[in-house]
Design a protein that fits this description.
Radius of gyration: 20 Å
Number of strands: 0
Protein name: Transmembrane protein 256 homolog
Distance between the termini: 55 Å
Number of helices: 3
Keywords: Membrane, Transmembrane, Transmembrane helix
InterPro entries: DUF423 (IPR006696)
Strand content: under 5%
Mean pLDDT: 88
Largest sheet: none
Pfam families: DUF423
Low-confidence stretches: none
Order of helices and strands: HHH
Shape: flat
Subcellular location: Membrane
Length: about 90
């Protein structure tokens, strides 16, 4: 049995519907659900710090080909762990 191939325009339609659904559901969730405990700000700050220090130092060390720039990576990993741990409380 031969499976018909989809042309590129059909994939664009699927992508558009997925984007509309994501935007609509995200907007609905933002305006309807209000968290009782604003721990998400602490969680978001720690994860952002983790991304910037861990990934940033890894990318910088790889781009410049010098391992001395990877010194912040352990602190970024610690920020990731602290961020996930902040959800426990």
């Amino acid at each position: 049995m031969r499976i018909p191939q989809m042309d590129a325009f059909q994939w664009h339609k699927i992508a558009a519907v997925s984007g509309i659904a994501a935007l609509g559901l995200g907007t609905y969730g933002f305006h309807i659900f209000k968290p009782e405990n604003p721990v998400y700000k602490e969680f978001g700050g720690l994860l952002t710090a983790g991304i910037l220090s861990f990934s940033g130092s890894c990318y910088t060390a790889a781009y410049l080909e010098d391992r001395k720039y990877s010194a912040l990576a352990p602190f970024g990993g610690l920020a990731f762990v602290a961020g996930w741990a902040s959800l426990l409380f």
